[in-house]
């Protein structure tokens, strides 16, 4: 890239791709995903490696490859580095080639063995399920008996450790997390407000309803537009745990930054989807130009109220999970010298038939979790009661909100260009060739759960930015939709398309960000590294106030409570 502006755009696209690939384990996997990440964490703890691990990213095979390379890489470098010849830059290039080749070999072997393990588990599953169904009551009773014995043994030590080494620092960790995260979610709100307001002004001053399809095509891609979302993501970059990072063995804050950024994108996509659906319903009434502009403003206000509540719920869940991820490994490490060696004697309390379902190590960690989770929940609750950083209490509902707003179902995505655009005009941010229209339409219908935007059209100069070593030729695809269709064809060849599970701005669900699994013949060259942030863009739309968000304590005769799962998972989340 020859200019700073072009470089900033390239960095924004690349960072979005890194986030997309790092979010490789589907979040709708409520059993297999946590079980896999727990197994990885326990393996590292057996090597005395506690705390966060920034290479816990990508899909399962990539994570296993990273785990092998964590041990193999330093040994290999120590053995081979003295044998490399040439200038420092040349030696570095040689080492990168060697490590890349080794990573590919490790990846291929890990993939084959992981698939073998999955096949064995699948074959063993029916027999295990039959035992569970038959002996569920006995299994639960045995588990509770084991937990009570472990609790009696470790609780006094764990409570002292929590009181002396964790409790005093929870408010500081929470405040360090709340400031940049809340600023990022506020920026998401501001960007959404600005984009919808600009579209409304364009409807009034320029195109009217005839141009609405074109405007909505661009708005529907907002959450996946790296440049427009970059100012939101940049708000997380100042996150620091100064003085706490060493104490709690947090190797890097990147896991928290990327997790928060993924939540921002999901909430933006939910807000856009809700706006699209409500506007589409309004257009069915055949409004005039003036009525349409008033409707857009009214719908915008409704969506912003819903966003304020949803973002509060998502942030509170994120804060709880992040606090657990910081404190639990620290507690396990502190208690290991006095407690870990005593765990094998609890194995005799488990019937041999149930040994596959009840694990002493897991039960021990659950007991440790219970000692600190109350303090974490209380800290987050107090922040919400004090309305810090625009957090709401769980007992709050939106005043005068549509009780059915949260019940909008996820239907087929609206094709604005087809319904309201010119049939022969441009689509999205460029034109599609006739041969790619069908594929582009199919790709667009799955865009929410499919591919992060990988081509950004420069709206000022019209210059496309494409990944490649050569400049685009006149025949190269020059629109987001067309390039997406080509990417989608390649992805469909590798794996079946995932189902979209995005709900209308509902914080109850974490929208999965599926990633195409790499082929065995073409593993990733090496784990993605984080890039320096781009420049932030400051927007200043009106901020939410008490009157605007309209909070009130729910009562039996009030509006029905909006469905969330704010208090769902209290267990330690290791999907970061």
Automatic annotation (TrEMBL):
Residues 537-546 have a biased composition (Basic and acidic residues). It comes from Marmota monax. Belongs to the Niban family. This is Niban 1/2/3 domain-containing protein. Residues 161-329 form the Niban 1/2/3 domain. The lineage of its organism: Eukaryota, Metazoa, Chordata, Craniata, Vertebrata. Residues 567-576 have a biased composition (Polar residues). Residues 511-533 have a biased composition (Low complexity). PANTHER family: NIBAN FAMILY MEMBER, PROTEIN NIBAN 2. Residues 418-437, 442-576 are annotated as: Disordered.
């Amino acid at each position: 890239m020859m200019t700073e502006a072009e470089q900033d755009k390239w960095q924004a696209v690349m960072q979005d791709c890194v986030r997309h690939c790092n979010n490789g384990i589907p979040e709708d996997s409520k059993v297999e995903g946590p079980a896999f990440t727990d197994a990885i964490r326990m393996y590292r703890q057996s090597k005395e490696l506690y705390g966060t691990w920034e290479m816990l990213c990508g899909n399962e095979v990539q994570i296993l490859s990273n785990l092998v390379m964590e041990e193999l890489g330093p040994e290999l470098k120590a053995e081979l580095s003295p044998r490399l010849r040439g200038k420092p830059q040349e030696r570095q290039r040689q080492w990168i080639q060697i490590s890349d080749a080794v990573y590919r070999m490790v990846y291929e072997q890990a993939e084959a063995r992981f698939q073998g393990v999955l096949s064995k588990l699948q074959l063993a599953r029916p027999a295990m399920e039959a035992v569970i169904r038959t002996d569920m009551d006995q299994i639960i009773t045995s588990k509770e008996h084991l937990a009570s014995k472990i609790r009696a043994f470790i609780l006094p030590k764990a409570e002292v450790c929590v009181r002396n080494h964790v409790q005093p620092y929870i408010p500081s960790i929470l405040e360090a997390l709340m400031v940049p995260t809340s600023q990022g979610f506020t920026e998401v709100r501001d960007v959404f407000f600005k984009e919808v307001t600009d579209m409304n002004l364009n409807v009034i001053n320029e195109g009217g309803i005839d141009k609405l399809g074109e405007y909505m095509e661009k708005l529907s891609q907002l959450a996946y537009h790296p440049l427009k979302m970059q100012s939101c993501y940049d708000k997380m970059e100042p996150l620091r745990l100064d003085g706490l990072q060493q104490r709690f063995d947090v190797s890097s804050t990147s896991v928290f930054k990327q997790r928060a950024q993924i939540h921002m994108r999901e909430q933006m996509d939910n807000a856009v989807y809700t706006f699209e659906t409500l506007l589409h319903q309004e257009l069915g009434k055949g409004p005039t130009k003036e009525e349409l502009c008033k409707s857009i403003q009214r719908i915008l206000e409704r969506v912003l109220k819903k966003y304020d509540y949803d973002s509060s719920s998502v942030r509170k869940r994120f804060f709880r999970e992040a606090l657990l991820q910081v404190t639990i490994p620290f507690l396990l490490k502190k208690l290991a010298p006095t407690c870990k060696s005593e765990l094998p004697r609890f194995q005799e309390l488990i019937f041999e038939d149930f040994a596959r379902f009840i694990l002493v190590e897991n039960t021990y960690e659950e007991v440790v979790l219970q000692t600190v989770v109350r303090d974490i929940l209380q800290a987050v609750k107090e922040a919400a009661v004090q309305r810090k950083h625009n957090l709401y209490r769980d007992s709050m509902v939106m005043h005068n909100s549509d009780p059915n707003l949260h019940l909008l179902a996820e239907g087929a995505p609206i094709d604005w260009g087809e319904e309201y655009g010119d049939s022969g005009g441009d689509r999205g941010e460029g034109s599609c060739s006739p041969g790619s229209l069908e594929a582009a339409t199919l790709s667009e219908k799955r865009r929410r759960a499919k591919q992060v935007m990988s081509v950004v059209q420069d709206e000022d100069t019209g210059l496309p930015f494409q990944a490649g070593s050569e400049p685009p030729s006149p025949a190269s695809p020059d629109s987001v939709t067309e390039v997406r269709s080509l990417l989608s064809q390649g992805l469909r060849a590798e794996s079946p398309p995932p189902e979209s599970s995005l709900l209308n701005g509902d914080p109850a669900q974490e929208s999965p960000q599926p990633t195409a699994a790499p082929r065995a013949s073409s593993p990733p060259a090496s784990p993605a590294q984080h890039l320096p942030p781009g420049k932030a863009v400051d927007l200043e739309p009106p901020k939410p106030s008490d009157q605007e968000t309209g909070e009130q304590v729910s009562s039996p005769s009030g509006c029905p409570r909006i469905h969330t799962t704010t208090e769902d998972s209290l267990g330690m989340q290791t999907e970061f």
